[in-house]
Design a protein that fits this description.
alpha+beta, 2 domains, single chain, about 35% helix, 11 helices, Jelly Rolls
């Protein structure tokens, strides 16, 4: 299984954290067994297992627009009643017409993807989730955009040209709400092309949070797996401080009514007092340990089940 050094070869962990992480995008040429974490045959097997997927986890896009789910999914009879599942034949037909396949939340679908997710979570103390993208025929699924998380894209098969732009959103949280001129806003914000890179099997692209980019598949089939990594940001402190502050009577007390005589002055003094206590809490070594433990809690340590070994242990 790949280690972090394998994933980041030939740059390596130390240089990556010093020069690139959260600073600038990075293309790593094919090295080691990065392309072996997944395959076209693996994708065929996953698409064929229709019961794995929902309308949230299997989507198709063509020419920057989503394919209607009714053209992919069908209502089928199951033991629990009628359910909606993708029809592999419909998926295949849409793919033949030029639509891209997107499989979301796939980090637990194979041992290799699970192992990479484990390595990334351990290294970056952030939830890691894998999406699989398969395109063909020089078609572009998504317009220029940025992501609100760290991106590690492993190229598996074929070729895909990534365009990375100078524009970068400062520490985005979520995406802007949909509006008629949203893509126009993105196109203005992305700026000039920083570089173009043809991705080939075994290549890896690191894209820091907020960096604008887009990608175009080559003439044949193109397959890559993107791991999104979500470390804890400062907004998480609000929940952690709330949990820690509930033990303090002053935080549990009602705030002064600003509409009563002298109320605004009393409220201002109360807010100042509460702010001082929050500052003291933030500087407390015990709270530091609490925050560090919450960060480490994002490492989920996915278990590889071995029922045969468990059976032998029980028999012994």
């Amino acid at each position: 299984m790949l280690s972090l050094e394998d994933i980041l070869a030939p740059v390596g962990r130390e240089r990556f954290f010093a020069e690139y992480y959260r600073k600038k995008p990075l293309h790593l040429p094919a090295a080691g067994a990065r392309a072996d974490i997944f395959s076209v045959a693996d994708l065929d097997r996953l698409v064929s297992q229709a019961s794995l997927w929902t309308e949230q986890t299997l989507k198709m896009w063509v020419d920057r627009a989503p394919v209607p789910q009714d053209q992919i999914f069908a209502s089928v009879q199951s033991l629990e009643g009628v359910v909606r599942r993708p029809d592999p034949a419909r998926v295949e037909a849409q793919f033949a017409r030029g639509a891209s396949i997107v499989l979301n939340e796939t980090e637990n679908t194979t041992p290799s993807l699970r192992a990479v997710a484990n390595v990334l979570e351990e290294a970056f103390l952030g939830f890691a989730s894998a999406n699989i993208y398969c395109s063909r025929g020089g078609r572009q699924a998504f317009d220029s955009h940025y992501d609100d998380h760290e991106v590690f894209a492993f190229h598996i098969a074929g070729e895909k040209t990534w365009r990375v732009y100078e524009g970068r959103i400062d520490n985005p949280v979520g995406q802007p709400s949909q509006r008629p001129n949203l893509q126009e806003m993105h196109n203005k914000a992305k700026g000039k092309i920083l570089f173009e890179q043809v991705m080939r099997p075994g290549d890896l692209m690191y894209m820091p949070r907020g960096q604008y980019h887009d990608a175009l598949a080559g003439a044949g089939l193109s397959l890559h797996v993107t791991f999104s990594v979500f470390p804890m940001n400062g907004l998480a402190l609000f929940n952690l401080m709330e949990a820690a502050s509930i033990r303090d009577s002053l935080f549990r007390d009602d705030l002064p009514n600003p509409d009563l005589p002298g109320g605004r002055e009393a409220l201002a003094e109360r807010l100042k007092a509460l702010g001082a206590r929050l500052a003291a809490l933030a500087g407390d070594p015990g709270f530091l340990n609490h925050v560090a433990a919450a960060q480490r809690g994002r490492v989920r340590r996915r278990h590889e089940a071995s029922l045969s070994a468990a059976s032998e242990s029980e028999d012994g």
